[in-house]
Amino acid sequence: MARSLDGLVFVPVADQAPGQVGRRTRFEYHEQDGHVWAEYRGGDVVRGHLVGTRSGDTVDFRYVQLRLDGTTASGHCVSLVRALADGRLRLEETWTWESQEGSGTSVVEQPPV
Fold this sequence. Notes:
0% of the residues lie in helices and 60% in strands. With 113 residues, it is mostly beta strands.
């Protein structure tokens, strides 16, 4: 199992569609006793929160966000925690909007030091 996500910062490796997270979005993760939560903001997201659980290298969570245009959105995501060769962590995400149509995949990583 990859190390704890607690206290780690992650950034997307690519931009998504407008109104979603992008390369300027920063996620600040917390983890304790199998519970995972994070705050995120940046790009089109004014404020976002996620909360869920971790079992091994799988994180299952719900997310909700407030966008620059004043709209809100929410969804479900399952992320696989992967260790990179240089020791940083990557989250390979499969997500589905619950408040609107759409689903997809994305990748976030710890930024290089």
